[in-house]
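My main concern about presentation is that the manuscript never shows what a single data entry looks like. In essence, backbone conformation is discretised, so a fold becomes a row of integers matching the chain in length. An entry of this sort, consisting of the sequence and the corresponding backbone structure tokens, reads as follows:
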Amino acid sequence: MKRIALVLAAFATLALAGCGGENRYERLADRITQAMQNNSIAPVQNELAKGINIDRVRIAEAADVLAPLGKIESVKEVKPCDPGVHCFIVKFQKATYREKLRLDENGKIVAWRYSPE
């Protein structure tokens, strides 16, 4: 019985070790993707750099593409990426996309792009 308990404890420890969580950039990419899926920039408006305005048409176009893909299952930052850009693989229920996020010196969004993987 002790042996089974030790094996279960070891598996639990390994499972928790693999759940390091999303980094700051992954969380930001997740938030902007969800906002666009929901056809609203409002949840991330304060994350946009000064002077960056995403017009209503672009938001609607992104929602038309991203909403049908289903719930986001994971957002993982991948490297290498262009200098000054954070690249991600975003897995949705129905597809996988690649996203690029460029931030200014204050960590605010200046560009966000997405494309099918």
Observations:
- The chain has one domain: 23-116.
- Residues 3-18 have pLDDT under 50 and may be disordered.
